[in-house]
Amino acid sequence: MRTVFDCGIVFSIQKFSEFDAILKIFSKNNGKISLLARGFFRPKSKMIGVLQLFCETDFYFFPAKNEKSLCKLIRTENFSPPNFQPSPDFFLISEFCEKFCRENQSIPTFFNFLSEIRRASDAKNLAVIFLVRALTIFGFFPDFKFCSKCGKKFSNFAFWKMSGEIFCENCDNSGQKLNFSDIKVLKSYQYFSLEIYQKILLEIKSYQKILDFLFLILKNSHHTSFFSQKFFKNKKPESNFC
Ligand SMILES: [Zn+2]
Question: What does the alpha-carbon distance between residue 214 and residue 130 come to, in Å, rounded to a whole number?
Answer without folding.
Answer: 10
